[in-house]
Amino acid sequence: MQKIQTRDSMLLAQRGSIKKGGIKTRELILFVAMGLFALLMISPVLWMFSASFQNQAEMFKASFNWIPLNATLNSYRNVWVNGNLSGAFLTSLEVTLIYVPIHVLVCTLTGYVFAKFNFRFKNITFLFIIATMLIPQETTFFPVYDIVKNLGWLNTPQGVVLPFFFSGFGIFLMRQYALAIPNELIEAAKIDGCSDSRSFFSIALPLLQPGMTALAILALTFIWNEFAWSRLVLSDPGSQTLPIALYFLSHTAGVSQAIKYPDLLAASVLTAAPVLILFLFFQRRFIESISSVGIKG
């Protein structure tokens, strides 16, 4: 009897080891496949970064050198000085510093109101706000353009950010975070004599910081890369943002002797680098903020 039990236990152990080995093999195959896919996705970015340090002759060689043989910063220096990239960078920075805090505050306040206050037509109003996400933003450009023009905000940072202060997604995101705040905390604050505004800034706002961080990163990424509306509003060459400056550089690269293809790639690196570095720096906090959103009704 003991021999039979021992034999059965040995068979079960062998099956378990085979199963574990099979799982490890599948995990290894999946890991390799994901690594190859990630390499495929990032290879154009690596090529752009490498070519931006090369001269045009080395860039167009039959065999491309992923590590530049004669690395140079001439392309970066050229686009920064002659390609109007320094002015465009300052304009983009100004637009971002205006837009992100106001957008986050507006969406946070609105989302908190929809989560913690009861008023007439609350649900219908919220559904209307969500429905705005289904409307292509380009369809609102012309009426908003008339408003910006009448305000005298053409070729100004405030003219760029005006249509984007309101965001259906931002309000929805912050409402979900506000729903996770226990009502007992707000009620206890009111019993202690706190007004609605003080309850928001003293109690709710610190608890909403993870959501505000995630929304700020999304807002920064959006406004830094925004092109269509900025192209319509910013017609003055001295008020261009980075995407617009990059657009005009792409039309002169290879045609003008002043701007060559490595210069265009250097401009692309300078345009993408700030947002990419910021995202990598706050990557863990951003993922934790998004994953912690509770879906409450």
TrEMBL record:
Gene Ontology annotations for the cellular component aspect, listed alphabetically: plasma membrane
Record keyword Methyltransferase present: no
Source domain of life: Bacteria
UniProt keywords, alphabetically: Cell membrane, Membrane, Transmembrane, Transmembrane helix, Transport
InterPro entries documented for this protein: MetI-like, MetI-like_sf
Keyword Protein biosynthesis: no
Subcellular location: Cell membrane
Membrane topology field: Multi-pass membrane protein
Residues annotated as domain ABC transmembrane type-1: 89-282
Family affiliation: Belongs to the binding-protein-dependent transport system permease family.
Name recorded for this polypeptide: Sugar ABC transporter permease
Biological source species: Dictyobacter alpinus
Upper lineage: Bacteria, Bacillati, Chloroflexota, Ktedonobacteria, Ktedonobacterales
